[in-house]
Amino acid sequence: MRAIIPAAGGVRFTPPIMSLLALFSARFSRARAYRQRFSTSVTDTLLFHPAADALYGFPGARRLAAADTPWQRIEVWDTPQLGCLFTLDGRPMTSAGDEFIYHECMTHPAALTHPAPHAALVLGGGDGGAARQLLRHPGVERIVVAELDPDVVRLTGDYLPEVRGNAFEDPRVELVIGDAAAFVASTQERFDLVVFDLTPPDSPAAGLYTPAFYAALKRVMSADALVSLHLGSPFHHAQRVGALLGGLREAFAVVRPLAAYVPLYGSLWLMAIASDTLDPAGIDETALQARAAERQLEGLRYYDPRLHAALLKSSCTARDKLGEILRL
Questions:
Q1: pTM for this entry
Q2: CATH architecture, domain 99-322
Q3: Bridge partners of 64?
Q4: In the chain, where the domains are located
Q5: 194-224 per-position pLDDT tens digit
Q6: Average pLDDT of the residues in 113-123
Q7: At a CB cut-off of 8 Å and minimum separation 6, what does 249 contact?
Q8: Which of 158, 197, 202, 320 is catalytic?
Q9: How many CB atoms lie within 10 A of CB 150?
Q10: How far apart are CA 278 and CA 81, in angstroms?
Q11: Is 197 considered catalytic here?
């Protein structure tokens, strides 16, 4: 291909390049016209605002479905970058393209820290991703998914079926529709693992991030149970992260932050594991590898026992942003 030749008025392209540009432009126009014809709603870029001074997005997104429920607005989008994803009140929740990062980190580090988990409680989790990962541990005989909004279950099942797989058809899984706090208050069961797969504290899930709920939750947790939850971005949600970690440290003896980059969230994303007895940083790689082999934990796409210790270490930039909050 011939070179680009500078011209007095700017940049002049040679004929072969002009032909390619014309071809790409024509194909893009046809593709865009097709999307507009067969889509009820088209947007050039799906934008997210993780903070007042931050903005990122996914060009070429197409809205597939939307529902206003008594609790929130649910939207399902198709994107060239991450496939189908859904949002709640405009916030990104899960995408088909990278959900494995979030769901594997929210489940397996805690599940492998526990020597023999038998029962798990997922608060929220209506997309089924957390339940699907927990089912990989053969010793887990019972999983309760307490999801507030039935439309989350319906729409994610229709448009993101790969996220849940067959989790909700598995006899070990019970899907409970309703207030998770009410379920915790009424159940007589005990759980070895609890996963907070919820919207952030400034949402309908606000009451589940409180000292009162942590105290109620302990009543249904076994003596060596672990809690896993997500905190947010250290760059956009430092204040929220600090408040959540402070509340956890008041309620639990051991609190360990962990971090992974999640493309859908546009940032490094912090999570945490809390317990009164077990420490995910206190188990070495050899023991984790042995447990993973015993449970035949294979086919994961992100988490690995060799990555476990690294997940529990925050980068210098995150440490600088959060100051003493992480205490690492």
A1: 0.85
A2: 3-Layer(aba) Sandwich (3.40)
A3: none
A4: 99-322
A5: 999 999 998 989 999 999 999 999 999 999 9
A6: 98
A7: 255
A8: 197
A9: 13
A10: 38
A11: yes
